[in-house]
Amino acid sequence: MTDTILQMQDITKTFPGVKALQDVNLTVERGEIHAICGENGAGKSTLMKVLSGVYPHGSYDGEITFDGEPCRFAGIRDSEERGIVIIHQELALAPQLSIAENIFLGNEQSRWGLIDWNATNFAAAQLLSRVGLAENPTTPILELGVGKQQLVEIAKALSKKVRLLILDEPTAALNDEDSAHLLSLLRGLRDEGITCVIISHKLNEVMAIADRVTILRDGRTITTMDMAGGEVTEDRIISGMVGRDLDHRFPPHESHVGEEVLRIEDWTVHSPTQHGRVVVANANLTLRRGEIVGLAGLMGAGRTELAMSVFGRSYGIGITGRIVKDGKEIQLRSVQDAIKNGIAYATEDRKRYGLNLIEDIKRNVSAAGLDRLAKHGWVDENEEYKVAGEFRTSMNIKAPSVLSITGKLSGGNQQKVVLSKWIFTNPDVLILDEPTRGIDVGAKYEIYTIINRLADEGKAVLVISSELPELLGLCDRIYTLSAGRITGEVPRADATQENLMALMTKGTE
Amino acid sequence: MTSVVPTNADLAVDDLSAGPGDSPGRSTRLNLNLRSSGIYIAFALIVLLFTVLTDGDMLQPQNISNIIVQNSYILILAIGMILIIIAGHIDLSVGSVVAVCGAVAAVLMVEWHMAWPLALAITLVVGGIIGAWQGYWVAYFGIPAFIVTLAGMLLFRALTLMVLGNRGISPFPDPVRTLANGFTEGYLGNIGLGVLGGADLLSIILGLIAVAGIVVTQWRARAARLRYNQDVAAMPLFVLRIAVAAVLIMFLVVQLARFRNLPWVLVLLAFLVVGYSLLTNRAVFGRQIYAVGGNLQAATLSGVKVKSVVFWIFVNMGILAALAGVVFAGRLNQANPTAGNQFELDAIAAAFIGGAAVQGGVGKVVGAITGGLIMGVINNGMSLIGAKTEQVMLVKGAVLLAAVAFDVWSKRRAGASR
User: Fold this and answer.
1) In this structure, are A45 and A131 located in the same domain?
2) Is A159 an interface residue toward B (CB < 8 Å)?
3) Which residues of A touch B24 (CB under 8 A)?
């Protein structure tokens, strides 16, 4: 096995302010299944976007050699012409169109400018039998489940004479049966000579299917390991994925944990878009006053969905379970109910869900607690100005005045505005979803300090984060979530990145 | 995958590209001022232009009175429309609602001989029900307002025809005609103003009261802001601004007082403008309209009852359209089946010329009124200089496009991070 099909050499990709990839090397042999593992944000998807031409030649440094020839892709079309096809985690199918139309989208089987439907459907049927999908090619995509849609994507890739197939988290949304089918299909394709690169968080799958595995961490290649000898274990992969050490990035803090304030029992949530799919299954959590609790989970584990479903059913359908606040069961049917009951949720995507970017700081800070500033439905604007000014000082929001437009602030300062908004509602429980995503190290430290202060004031804080060091540095207790199930509850003293990652990647029994 | 699922980690990295570096500064503020006050400057320039072109006829007492009376129903509609546009929706049906409500009022007042205050109240309720109908489909059923109100445009025109057939109903009772067309009486007699001749004393006194009201409220607002350590305009600027407002109001009132006193619709409009300005600026409900239009998801996750807000602004639009319908019918002294044709276009244009943003979240009641007046002045001024209808349409179309283009352009310049 020394027949190299793909070589990516010293790839460096920089976004303003961040090095997403630094001197990454990846070598893929012909006819193998090559897995890429790494934490969220390690650079896996960025690397694949460089390879497929989403980030065109010139926007990165380094060399790509495919099949012995150097590659300079200007876009996806170029890479597909060479037989490199990427299937993204969010499937790119047109739901209203038929299977056959989707397979040949942009690559229509036509004669003299008119589509030859017989040829299209015949060719589609052949491709479907290759991927083992027993459906009529004229069936619309929206009638298929996610698992079958995934197979259509692969059929589409095959129609393009694929030689290197890249799959980004192909099984994240699939149930066990569909996953097993997909994996066996990939083995079959390998035997036909198609090389696969698979990005996956599910280490048991990686162990089962991959010939070799490359580990990325913080935008660098850590190692490439051959699975053949049997020496590679899940533990070895995990230690490669997380091997950062904790330095002084966290303010010192000692929590004074009080009585229980919120208990979530037997919480189950179904997906509103995929019929019957369970997103959160029988979750149990408790939060106590003065305590910072972490919720760890990989992408697609259901962290945000869990939090938002608790926050006044902002996500999901078919929600069952109990919420007990201060010893009494409460019903949170709407966001208003949640706010009234002292629960706040700061979103992971502050630009889309957290802020009114065209308004000023003042109006954003008051947005959720406007009732506290109003008498008989009329807002006291002077009081509002004063409150916003107090938050600007106490949260150290760097802006010339509270009349500054939030869309113009930096990520860290926007996050402080979001936190101010929720603190102003005077909650007992704050759920902070990725509170430090996309903000610089200095601002992160400030956010950590704010979180500690909130705990000291007797509030319960639930922090959702993709960064394990952050949870370890901040939290008193950490829950792990895997595929919608709580797989562990680890006190800070016992928690290590390794044992958390093991719990986060634990398969469903 | 739904949109709320954790996004690709790369997005977090992309996020940064917009973040640090562009801190808000002085230029931003000047920009914003230009954006928000440009409309008033444009209005002043247009009035000035036509005053010159018409040798001052533009500002003659009778002409000013005409502009107000002729545009009153569009201005009433524009107030409702700006709220809907701020929330990120649109209402194409207002012209038809004007017609059907005018017809309802005519049937009640003329054919059934109902007392006019009762008939007016019932008509407003009918308008509210029409608004509730459309609000339900938009807010609770989730059909885009464009479609719902396009259907409404047809539905309510059809209803008008069913009520009226092919005829008009007239005449309306005197009080209704007075509301639409009439003037306050000279209860206190006239006062001599030297070279300007005689003017109605009551009108002058009301004008002075309005000016005094502005001075007192502005002064108190300024004092309160100072108590809270807020930035306020420097004293000379503050005085200058109030002086300009006072001069404009007194000029308007004196001119009107020299003609036939104050039009009743002006009194009505004054109450509506003050009331709705307060609502949008100071009321929780008004704030929520901006929140919904600015970022729907963020408003939802901040506990705003988004559906209820959207529903009620459509109800409000229906009531105002009914009011406009009565005013329009009263002015023509007839309810007829073609009433209100294309009023929706004028009302929407008024809102956008007045600084509303296409994406929602931005806009002011006073801006919409100014936008409506700009179109009224163009109509009036061009007819005074003898322009043809097609030329008027050409200019109005160009003004609308230019106003929105300016808004989009200034936004692109100001908000690179969006």
Assistant:
1) yes
2) no
3) 399-400, 404-405, 408-409
What's the CA angle centered on B400, arms B395 and B402, to 5 degrees? 90
ipTM value for the complex: 0.82
* Closest Cβ–Cβ partner in A40, A408, A434 for B417: A408
Strand partners, A460: A429
Same domain for A268 and A409, yes or no, is no
Which residue from B28, B287, B304 is facing A379, i.e. has the nearest CB? B287
* Chain B, nearest residue to A358 by Cα: B294
pTM confidence score: 0.79
Question: Quick one: B268 exposed, middle or buried, by C-beta within 10 A (0-12, 13-18, 19+)?
Answer: middle
- Asked if A95 has any chain B CB less than 8 Å from its own CB, the reply is no
The closest CB to that of B418, out of A407, A411, A437, belongs to A407
Q: What is the pLDDT of residue A248?
A: 60
Chain A residues touching residue B229 (CB < 8 angstroms): 389
**Which residue of B lies nearest to A46 if distances are taken between CA atoms?**
B10
Q: Are A292 and A432 in contact (CB under 8 A)?
A: no
Do B1 and A173 count as a contact with CB atoms less than 8 A apart?
yes
Q: Specify the length of chain B in residues.
A: 418
Residues A226 and A277 in one domain: no
DSSP state of A508: P
- The single residue listed with the structure tokens 């802006």 is A399
Question: Residue A18 is nearest to which of B16, B21, B284, comparing CB atoms?
Answer: B16
Q: Is B190 exposed, middle or buried (0-12, 13-18, 19+ CB in 10 A)?
A: middle
Counting residues of chain B whose pLDDT is more than 90, the rounded percentage is 61
Phi/psi at B281 (nearest 5 deg)? -85, -40
B299·A421 Cβ contact <8 A: no
Which of A16, A273, A308 is the closest to B16 by Cβ?
A16
A183 sits in which H/E element: helix A176-191
Chain B closest CA to A415's CA: distance in Å? Answer: 11
Q: Please report which residue ranges of B59-136 form alpha helices under DSSP H.
A: 61-86, 94-106, 116-135
Beta bridge partners of A491: A477
Query: Which 3 state secondary structure label does DSSP give A469?
Result: helix
Count of structural domains within chain A: 3
Task: Tell me the pairing of strands A374-375 and A343-346.
Answer: unpaired
**Closest residue by Cα to residue B34 from B409, B417, B416, B374:** B409
Q: In tens digits, what is the pLDDT along chain A, a chain of 509 residues?
A: 468 899 999 999 887 656 788 899 999 999 899 999 887 778 888 898 899 888 988 889 999 999 888 988 998 888 888 899 998 877 788 888 999 999 988 878 777 788 888 888 999 999 999 888 888 999 998 888 878 888 898 899 888 889 999 998 888 777 777 888 888 999 999 988 899 999 987 788 888 899 999 998 888 898 898 888 777 888 888 888 877 554 567 888 888 899 999 999 999 999 888 788 899 999 999 999 999 999 998 877 899 999 999 999 999 899 999 999 999 999 999 999 999 999 999 998 888 899 999 899 999 999 999 999 999 999 998 899 999 999 999 999 988 889 888 988 888 899 999 999 999 999 999 999 999 887 766 788 889 999 999 999 999 999 999 888 889 999 999 999 998 999 999 999 999 988 998 998 876 54
Q: Is A483 on the interface with B (CB under 8 A)?
A: no
A12 touches chain B (CB under 8 A): no
Domain B33-182+279-414, CATH among 1.10.287, 1.10.3470, 3.30.460, 1.20.120: 1.10.3470
Q: Domain span at residue A370?
A: 350-426
Return the SS3 of A271.
coil
Question: Residue A31: phi, psi to the nearest 5?
Answer: 75, 20
- Asked if residue A508 and residue A467 are part of one domain, the reply reads yes
CATH number at residue A279: 3.40.50.300
Looking at every residue in chain B, the average pLDDT score rounds to 86
